[in-house]
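User: I'm designing a mutation panel for EF-hand domain-containing protein and want to avoid disrupting the core. Could you give me a predicted structure to guide residue selection? Please restate the sequence first so the numbering is unambiguous.

Assistant: Good idea. Sequence first, for numbering, then the predicted structure tokens:
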Amino acid sequence: MANAREAAEAEFKRFDTDGDGLLTADEIRKANDALGGQGASESEIEAFIASADSDGDGTIKLEEFVALVGHGRHESA
């Protein structure tokens, strides 16, 4: 069974549709749209990006994503 980091890395790769190693707001929205009515609201997406984007560049790098999602912090964000 995959550990939390491996699971977070797999999710990151699934969301990173252009394979550039960065998650943009658009990629996160597209992943969210794929969930249909079960996804997050726009304000929740913005809050997720803000909480994960530790360097403030407007994108989420793998390490930022793993730091947030890989340790379960997103559950309380």
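For picking mutation sites, this is relevant: The two ends are 26 Å apart (CA to CA). The CA atoms of residues 41 and 71 lie 22 Å apart.
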